[in-house]
Amino acid sequence: MAMTAILLAIWQVGLHEVLLVTAAAIALLGADDLAVDLIFVFRIVTSPGRRRTPTPDMMRRTRPLPIAIFVPAWDESPVIAQMLAQLTATQRYPDYRVFVGLYPNDPAGRLAVGQVADPRITPVINPATGPTTKADCLNALWQAMCAHETHHGLTYNAVVLHDAEDVVHPQELTVFDAMIPGNAMVQLPVLPLPDPTSLFVAGHYMDEFAESHAKELVVRQALGATVPSAGVGCAIDRAMLGRIAAAAGGRPFHADSLTEDYELGHRVRVLGGRTVLVRTRHDGGLVATAEYFPGELGAAVRQKARWLTGIALAGWDRIGWHGGAADRWMLLRDRKAPLAALLTLIAYFLLLAMILDGAMRLALPAAARMPAVTTGWVLTLLWVNWAMLCWRLMLRALFTTYAYGPVEGLLAVPRAMVGNIINAGAAWLALRRYWGMLRGGRLTWDKTRHRFPEPI
After folding, report:
1. Beta bridge partners of 160
2. Which of 27, 131, 312, 320 reaches 20 to 30 Å from 8, CA-CA?
3. Strand partners, 97
């Protein structure tokens, strides 16, 4: 009996202390999120005029300037032809060219691009066999564009980034043409497409992007912090990209980066360029990039692990801490993601531990006589975290409802748990990958299988 009492005491003390530390850490991270929410509510919603949107006069320029579109495409034969056909058939802009990055050991991809007979499409074959990295492919496209400019005696006004699975909005280039003067980088919202075959895994991307691209990036812009590139639906001023390339030996994208798009926004900002998010509507709909996101659990974990590795871990080494207080705060928010995901996973295990503790108190008289673990500061923090969780779920549901309707808004609540599990798995995988990078591991194109919407 004495040994049982000792073990129960160790259990009670240990559970109480772990609860206290975990609850305090979650409350601290929750306060950080709450600060962003309050800035959005009181500074953005009450001052809608602060948002940068193109006016009708800006979008009716008599002489639109030429724009280059970069589409890196390693092993994208299932979607690239449909993507290019949709883009060239619907884009309402008179002067653009699409540079498609291909590889010599991807004959299916080269064949698929060749099926789209449009003179505005320029296939670019990478001199190296694939896969290299997405950034390396983008560098090959940059060099091909520069050669094209020299040969034809022209200069593109902007470079637009897209992926092979993107559904490009017909008014996208018109918006970029209107906003690039005065802005070095312009990002449009990204809207994940609803996937009826994956309501929860693919669906959780809808919730995250709906909130991030309607609140998080808007707050960053309002505070004067860097708006990072999402890698798609993003335009960079040609002169600015030329400055970045000149400082990097003619290769503007870091070939050894997992998240070259995210880093690009910060490099533009360091050089004094303005980065902005533009939310504007045309014919009742948001001008945004749409695409399917992974619908399988493993694919979602791998994709998010790449994001976390490149942004929160390797990005810390590569970018450091730059800018003023707002930029540093947002860098901290980006880099807390692995910690937040792992803390959430610990919280789920602690919930199970508390259920077990309650069961032991019912079954064992000695356990029933032990002090409760949820007293004092632990109880206070648990109530604080519960209130912030309810607030967080309500906001997530509201943003999803605004973007996709009330049914998806209701699904956003249970999908939050799915997202937490995916993020926790991604954080663990990201830590393993980062450790491998520190030990000299080779980077390659870590991509997922893509789909394109079927024609209606």
Report:
1. 69, 235
2. 27
3. 68
